[in-house]
């Protein structure tokens, strides 16, 4: 069992507690494969086996035909059964209580991280800056020299009076990393590779520098209303929910598909991910945020920003940032490489075709 003691997981199964105070878990328990409600740890079984406990792994590359164990489920010889669903608690009575609860949950979760062997993936935005403000460990940013993330990380590191290590991305590094990412994650679609690229190349440098764990601000956008499609619900066609809070839950339900990609890529690069903003106490607090606690006018992640003011300068707490694949320019430059190799934009999913050519 990874992520939690078997005793804790067994108690969660018996009680039906979906958020028993862990950072996620996955593995075998009493003859069944079990994965936490948000799928924070990857878990796979071999397709077609009568008993999945006979052929399972945390690494999809270790099986011939891996099938993910659904988040929140147990899977044994009798089939799959749901153990947990995300709670749906009543919202906080007011925004002041919401800010206090989120601040306590976030600070407690970050402060509990063991800094030994740890580095931080630092983009200069709110989420990674919260980690940097409370953990005295090296900061790393990946990007092309003119990228938004490198510039933002440098300015935020200056505000925090911290040293920053820059992982400069190059076309050669991208071409080398793409097939390695595809092998580790089992994915060749353009978006998955673009998202994993800056993480993977950061992790390689971190491992080369002697660190074996990498802290990330993952989960904050999903938990606290960081996406435009959440902020614009129900008008945005990318979500089905009728409220911002409903859209928050909708994007949270995509985490079991997203997180294994990042975990597998980071482990392949030689580090173990650490995600304090995805611990149960933070998730529990975020699930109690109502629409205006998630998004206030044009301000996304309103409660988290207010909670962060005790740890961060306002210039960072109020800062917007781009997704890593765009802020690092990894997406733009992978597209450029695809076109240089003859995969033009008029072709169907030209970047994915280029990725597949590198894998072949």
UniProtKB/TrEMBL annotation:
<dbReference type="InterPro" id="IPR001962">
    <property type="entry name" value="Asn_synthase"/>
</dbReference>
<keyword id="KW-0067">ATP-binding</keyword>
<dbReference type="GO" id="GO:0005829">
    <property type="term" value="C:cytosol"/>
</dbReference>
<dbReference type="InterPro" id="IPR050795">
    <property type="entry name" value="Asn_Synthetase"/>
</dbReference>
<feature type="domain" description="Asparagine synthetase">
    <location>
        <begin position="103"/>
        <end position="234"/>
    </location>
</feature>
<dbReference type="GO" id="GO:0004066">
    <property type="term" value="F:asparagine synthase (glutamine-hydrolyzing) activity"/>
</dbReference>
<dbReference type="GO" id="GO:0006529">
    <property type="term" value="P:asparagine biosynthetic process"/>
</dbReference>
<dbReference type="GO" id="GO:0005524">
    <property type="term" value="F:ATP binding"/>
</dbReference>
<feature type="domain" description="Asparagine synthetase">
    <location>
        <begin position="241"/>
        <end position="342"/>
    </location>
</feature>
<feature type="compositionally biased region" description="Basic and acidic residues">
    <location>
        <begin position="1"/>
        <end position="13"/>
    </location>
</feature>
<dbReference type="InterPro" id="IPR014729">
    <property type="entry name" value="Rossmann-like_a/b/a_fold"/>
</dbReference>
<keyword id="KW-0547">Nucleotide-binding</keyword>
<protein>
    <submittedName>
        <fullName>Asparagine synthetase B</fullName>
    </submittedName>
</protein>
<feature type="region of interest" description="Disordered">
    <location>
        <begin position="1"/>
        <end position="25"/>
    </location>
</feature>
<dbReference type="Pfam" id="PF00733">
    <property type="entry name" value="Asn_synthase"/>
</dbReference>
